[in-house]
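Escalation from tier 1.

The customer reports that the assembly of two entities below gives different structure tokens on two consecutive runs. Tier 1 could not reproduce it. I'm attaching the input and our single run for tier 2 to review.
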Amino acid sequence: MTSAIGTARSALSDKSELLVAALLFVLGVVSLIDAAMVTDNAASVGPLSSSVFPTVVGVMLLGVGAALLVDVLRGGRGEMEGGEDVDLEQPTAWAPFFAVGGFFLANAVLIESVGWPLTGTLLFFGSAVALGSRRYVMTLIVSAVIAFGSYLLFVYALGAFLPAGILQGVI
Amino acid sequence: MDSLTLLMEGFAAALTPTYLMFALIGVLLGTAVGVLPGIGPAMTVALLLPLTFSLDATGAIIMFAGIYYGGMYGGSTASILLNTPGEASAMMTAIEGNKMAKAGRAAQALATAAIGSFVAGTIATGLLVLVAPLVVDFAISITPADYFALMVVAFGAVTLVLGSSRIRGFASLGIGLFIGLIGIDGSTGQERLTFGLPHLMDGVNVIVVAVGIFALGEALWIALHLRRNPPGIIPVGRPWMDKSDWKRSWKPWLRGAALGFPFGAMPAGGAEIPTYLSYVTERKLSKHPEEFGKGAIEGVAGPEAANNASAAGVLVPLLTLGLPTSATAAVLLAAFQQYGIQPGPLLFENEPGLVWGLIASLFIGNVLLLGLNLPLAPLWAKLLRIPRPYLYAGILVFAAVGAYAADGSSMGLYLLLVMGLLGVIMRRYGLPVVPVIIGVILGPLAELQLRRAMQLSGGDPSALVASNLSIGLYILLGLAFVVPLVLRWRSARSQPAVDAPVSDSEEKVSAGPEHDR
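Tier 1 run:
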């Protein structure tokens, strides 16, 4: 019984690679449609118009997508990337993944209104906790030091712009 | 001898206190970031790029040179002490190096890697000085059609020669070319694949792609599969070697340099093949073949020398032809472009001060690295103990701050997230990373050369195969495509079981690009 469940699961994860083929098809179609919709202008008169290269790339993507489709259906499978910090034996941990991605997204949304020093602190703290840090106070201190430190480094030492947000005038 | 004079002028510029300081900062930061587990030279350069924003072009490029070589050094330290090759090219060093470290010979492994890198790096940079002007002379005479052929070969090389699956290699290349198309076509002013988003009109920056796929992709991938109990790190004192270690190391260093430079310098180069060849050569020539697999010093000295020599070799096509052949070179090219510098034959004519200053600072960086890294090795080893949650949170923060500082809008952060998710998909399904990066940066350049070639010929496509050079390049590419297929077909017909050592060794090389980050 267990082996049947195992095969069912592996068949499912075999098939999930078809998503990559689908992605290639979508990119290929988008590229072809976009190439067809490029409108000519005075500068585009020449032997190689702006639509040639996207068309070639689109056809290539469709071709590779088809080849991958065949390969996956015939049992081919991409090799998951390992690494010293990676344990592929364990089940996929979706919670930390969505947490880390979520904190990154939150930073992108909030950075301009709240400001980098605070969103950066949140990004570091949130990701570190999601990845298993349990010394909360210590982590919070490290987060703040890194976020405020990077703000000062970039704005005052490197002359780059970072939003100060609600701390405008304070920092 | 003309280039020697120019090189001396380069030294005069690079040895001023300010530039020397930039080189020192670059070397230190490059090593410190490169030594962090899983961070390879390409990611090191991409992550540290924002730090150079406020410098002038020469200063920035001198700092890159330090970061580039420092990142390579740091990578070999991490491979030896932790068995975590940050880049495929460091994999061969990791095999014997980590075994040596586990057998209590970490100090000797680090020493032979550091001194070997210095020796090979210096020889190879010297060869760069000799070869680059010759390639420039040659490059000035070749036509846009030849350029286009060279780029097509580079595309083919990163997908055919490396990687365990060609289909997945081409998939990566296609994705990279697609990303490279986004934005306004520089020649005609027409928008492509911008979907009406003004931010996409300038295209997607290669740095954003590299940081997204390497840094964010890595952090998200780690989040999915984090090992709960991190691997042990071997403590190390100051690196040193005794007489017999020197005796066993110096020949592999020289042979490694001899293998690494030409492979790096070829338009279809990279460090994976020469490091592998060096490993095999040393195993064959060693007087202690029984030690291989248990920590043979030759197996560290040779591949590490080859790795560094090819890193200098990669700069030949990059500087003279504007042709990147590794992920790190692609990031370097993007960094140059950020400063309005387009590498190519004209660069040597228009900006000799910059080019020779860069080459001089490569020599200086090598010396600095040797002087710093032998005493600082115990400190770098401590960096390997950084708690993983902090490490990856730090990578996320640095990727975010760099992306925002680069263009001053949160659009860069959204793009970074998209690229990070792409990086996760690629890691999950074994799509190699290098072809994407090469596709993004080389795609638009290939289109430019193709357009020039067509304009010169008045739209006649036969101009693409008009010269012997381009015909030869296409034949070479065709052979690289067909020969492995024929070999596989024949071996499948003649004997169902392919003889083990060959297929095994092929896999070792080909497992490469997935780890290249």
